[in-house]
Design brief:
Number of domains: 2
CATH topology of the largest domain: Aminopeptidase
Shape: globular
Distance between the termini: 37 Å
CATH class of the largest domain: Alpha Beta
């Protein structure tokens, strides 16, 4: 392929959003679900048609047919979080002799230039299936490793020998329009200080409820003495072949810690996913959370890969050299 045509976009339209969705479908078809994250996709949808503070994208198009072959996006979820950048290409986004590797670096460098021209600042970058080579190529661009998220997987149903929860729990489905406030209280207490899951508000939860994958029957809630004590929220990735269920968010209000309900709720979520015919499940756990990772391994989960976040402070256009 000839060199792609690269442009910076600060006010995306619906045509670009459609092209990004088409690129994601091609990526899934070629190598599985390693496309743009849900956060970046939602930020793009919010920005379409009216621009957005701190939003910029870099598109790479085939010079012959105009097809989108690569895409980078910088945005911020809200004022509490640093801006984040992600890069996706139709070819594998790895450094080296492949066109995808060169294109990924080209898109990132162009995005960094545009971010610097806009004033710079702290910037977070996520890489799926991160490698030592990613560490090296990003270090050359000023990024240091921040944290690792480990994706773990297991087969369903769980074997009869898998240790069950220490306490049996009776869950019920989440009630849309009823449970939001109580769930937010329990969630924000359970994830106080967490960089992604903490400090959710009603708008954030409503946004998830509007997702096509949202299913209240797979959002299992535990009530204790009239109080929402914990939950296990599952998600089905139907773009994988075969589909995979995810333990999307699991949390127990700290007031109820020490009762074995984290394990019991995980079992409840996995049992639900198996009951709807899924044969594999996944979850993410912070690499620093040794206790949780150990529990998941005891239940049959094994490490699939590592997603890594990197941080850089990008100097603005007038910074001294």
């Amino acid at each position: 392929m000839d060199e792609p045509v690269v442009d910076v976009v600060v006010a995306p339209d619906q045509a670009l959003a459609d092209d990004v969705a088409d690129l994601m479908e091609r990526i899934v078809h070629r190598r599985g679900p390693d496309g743009l994250s849900d956060d970046r996709r939602r930020a793009l949808a919010r920005t379409v048609g009216h621009g957005g503070r701190g939003f910029l994208a870099v598109e790479a198009r085939d010079p012959v047919d105009g097809r989108l072959v690569g895409y980078a996006q910088i945005d911020r979820v809200d004022d509490l979080h640093d801006p984040a950048v992600e890069v996706v290409t139709e070819q594998p986004d790895r450094d080296g002799p492949t066109p995808g590797g060169r294109l990924a670096d080209l898109l990132l460098d162009e995005a960094l230039r545009a971010f610097r021209s806009g004033g710079g600042g702290r910037l977070r970058l996520w890489v799926t299936h991160a490698t030592v080579e990613d560490d090296r190529r990003l270090a050359r661009r000023g990024f240091g490793v921040e944290r690792d998220l480990v994706q773990m997987r297991c087969r369903l149903p769980l074997p009869a020998s898998a240790p069950a929860g220490g306490t049996a729990v009776a869950t019920r489905p989440f009630r849309v329009g009823v449970d939001e406030e109580a769930w937010l209280v329990a969630n924000n207490r359970a994830f106080a200080g967490h960089p992604e899951q903490g400090d959710w508000d009603l708008a954030t939860l409503r946004e998830r409820e509007a997702e096509p994958w949202f299913d209240p029957d797979g959002f299992l809630v535990l009530d204790v003495d009239g109080r929402l004590a914990g939950s296990c929220w599952t998600k089905v990735h139907r773009d994988e072949r075969p589909p995979v269920g995810e333990i999307y968010v699991i949390g127990v209000d700290p007031a109820f810690h020490g009762r074995g309900w984290g394990r019991a709720l995980t079992h409840a979520g996995l049992d639900h996913l198996a009951s709807i015919g899924l044969t594999a499940a996944m979850l993410y756990v912070d690499a620093a959370n040794v206790a949780a990772a150990t529990m998941y391994r005891s239940m049959g989960f094994v490490t699939d890969h590592v997603d890594r976040s990197y941080l850089a402070t990008v100097a603005g256009p007038h910074a001294p050299t």
